[in-house]
Amino acid sequence: MDRVFNFAAGPSALPLPVLERAQRELLSYPGSGCSVMEMSHRSAAFQGIADKAEADLRLLMNIPEDYAVLFLQGGASTQFSMVPMNLMQRGETAAYAETGNFAKKAAAEAKKWGKVVTVASSKDRNYAYIPEITADMIPEDAKYLHITGNNTIYGTQFKTAPKVNVPLVADLSSSILGRVYDVTEYDLIYAGAQKNMGPAGLTVVIVKKELLGKAADEVPSMLNYALHADAGSMYNTPPTYSIYIAGLVFDYLLKEGGVAEMEKRNAEKSALLYGILDESKLYTGSADKDSRSNMNVTFTLPSDELTAAFVKGATAEGMTNLKGHRAVGGIRASIYNAMTIEGVKKLADYMVRFEKENG
Ligand SMILES: *Cc1c(COP(=O)(O)O)cnc(C)c1O
Fold it and tell me: Which of 44, 152, 165, 200 gets the highest tally of CB atoms within 10 A of its CB?
């Protein structure tokens, strides 16, 4: 069986031991006589799977009891709407940091519900850096500040949570579990699963319980956090198989040493690639050094021809999905938790060789 090193930004690689276990359990989940895909979400077997997934995520991220963990659908993009609809009344104000495409999309959805104040932006240099955000920048009437913790397309990342006096909301779709986050510094965290947690279809929301139950009556039930929280994320049929796989990922991460160990490995992996960029006369890193992501490494080459040759050569050697997003161009290597150090070393060797041959 040939498996490539998949550097895709999302959906992305999953840990091989997780896929192997899912394969073993595909036809019959132990003790149940059927596949998890065929199970009622109300069955004791599935409730056990969901409960363990939540408990393991709480362990991994050290999530306190006064936060609810929700397993929802609709991707991070649905959270762009749910956040404003649950944290403010129609016409109220929210603060947004504009650090990339997804940040802009989040603000655009919030604008349909209330007033958006862009308190910081890195648009002036195509989102190559994380702007500083301080408490005095936030309007007094803002109901929350929204940040995008990791800018998947641009390869930038907040290293610390901004210190502000309003609830802090973070889209951590592409960095959750990739570095240690102190959940208590945030009031609401959301993330689509398909980058660092599991297959597409599951969206995780971690929200302070005191923020729940304030949504206006006009908010559709499916978009109301409180209903999902009260129903233990089973208000309707949840994405059962995606929850199961994410649960296997959580279990695997705990056995590997948890998020601190992942952060260490991701630091090692990203340092290997950034080290090459810093030495190179061929590659130019897209993100400012102090804003670099440990999850998405972005860089450009001097011409479209060289970029295409780089991608083609890498693909031929079993390293796929390295083409950058069109908003930045060049190359993007997404090195989430499931990307092994072996895969990153292989890419690093290729980069050095490619520069020797084309520099
Ligand atoms: C991928 C991504 C999204 C979009 O996620 P969907 O699940 O496709 O809606 C939003 N924000 C960030 C930071 C992302 O990386």
Answer: 152
